[in-house]
Amino acid sequence: PLHLVGQDWLGGAMTGEMSTGSITGGVRCLRNWAQVGGCIFGWGWYQLEIGNDVKMNENHAAVTGGAMVLLGGGTLKLFDNVEMSYNDVEVGSGGSSYLHGEVGAWLDVQLSGGVKV
C-alpha cells in the first residue's frame, strides 16, 4: 500500500485546495500529526472520493479533525472498506473528521459498504 506520512501545522500528510480527486486502492494514512487535520486539511469546492481499502488511523490533531478537516462545500464519498479509527484531538472536537459547509456552500456526504468512522 501507499503510505502517507508527515507532520505539519495544517494537514499532517496533505494540505491544499481540493477539487475533484480520489484516494483509493490500499492507501494508508497512519500516525500523522498536525495542529488541524491530522492526515488531511483541505478547502474549496470539492468532489472527493475515498475508498477501496483506505485506512486513516491513529492520526492526531492538537485542535480539530484527528484524521481530516474539509472546509468549504461539495461532495465527500466514502465507500468500500474505509477505516477512520483511533484518531484523536487534544482540545476541541472532531475526533476523526471536521466537515464544514460555509454559508452559500453545501456539503454532501455519501457513505457505503464497510465504512468505519
Number of strands: 15
Assembly type of the chains comes to single chain
Helix fraction?
Answer: under 10%
> What's the average pLDDT?
84
Describe the structure.
This protein has about 120 residues and is mainly beta. Helices cover about 0% and strands about 60% of the residues. The strands form four sheets. Strands 3, 4, 7, 10, 13 and 14 form a six-stranded parallel sheet that branches. The radius of gyration is 13 Å and the shape is globular. The model has no long low-confidence stretch (mean pLDDT about 85).
Short description:
The chain has 117 residues and is mainly β. Helix content is 0%, strand content 59%.
